[in-house]
Amino acid sequence: MKIVLLTAFGVGGASVIGAFFGFIFKKINHKFSDIVLAFAAGVMLAASVIGLILPSLEYGGKFPLLVTIIGVFCGALCVNLIDKIVPHLHKLTGVDIERHPDNQAQLNKVLLFVIAIAIHNLPEGIAAGVGFGTGNMTDALVIAGGIALQNIPEGMVIIAPMLAAGMSHRRTFLIAIITGVVEVVGTLLGYFAVSVSTAILPFALAFAGGTMLYVISDEMIPETHAHGSERGATYSLLAGFCLMLAFDVLLG
Description:
With 252 residues, this protein is mainly α. It has one domain (2-251). Helices cover 85% and strands 0% of the residues. The protein has helices at residues 2-24, 30-58, 64-85, 89-92, 95-99, 103-131, 137-157, 159-164, 169-196, 201-224, 230-251. Helix 6 (103-131) packs parallel to helix 9 and helix 6 crosses helix 10 (201-224). The longest helix is centred in the first third of the chain and has 29 residues, at 30-58. The model is unreliable at 89-101 (pLDDT under 50).
């Protein structure tokens, strides 16, 4: 339980670390951000497949393939529903806001973006928590590490828009902390859910894997390919994937 708590706070704390860097580097180079985010996408891709989806097939009972496929699509549909309800970073920031700096309108958009980040952190946290249900500590830590790595650039990019909208440094940092706390809650929810009933473990693993695959495909990859760094982002994703693959083979 201690390692789960430490991981939960580590995953959530990564957002706060990113926010800290966001205060230091208020204008983050897109290329740097894209490369880091793409690397994190590769790590998360390997983690979702190796640490969640393949174990789901292993623990799936009589109908492992069916349970896993249903779980993956349910996870993806859950995040898709969130997509429909709450806008994202690429819909809320950019040229239009920069050219028309209406503070009130900008603040509203920034707050919506922060809500989007917080909501997305919940299934990511659940994925980290569910990973511990397999009993494979290496896979669980790989999953959590991938999510934490992704949270650092995510935490960095939310700072500048909030400051530009006129929010104080103190309130901006407090909001960044809240987005991290949501991830801590998600991690604990995922862990306790599979602890209470191991029967739901195969579905929960596939569900968590589906949420991660959706976020990678719908959010992370398009974002890393939106600023002219496509080639570097692609190789960075491959590097992250292969690194986690190597960890799994060497530590497994």
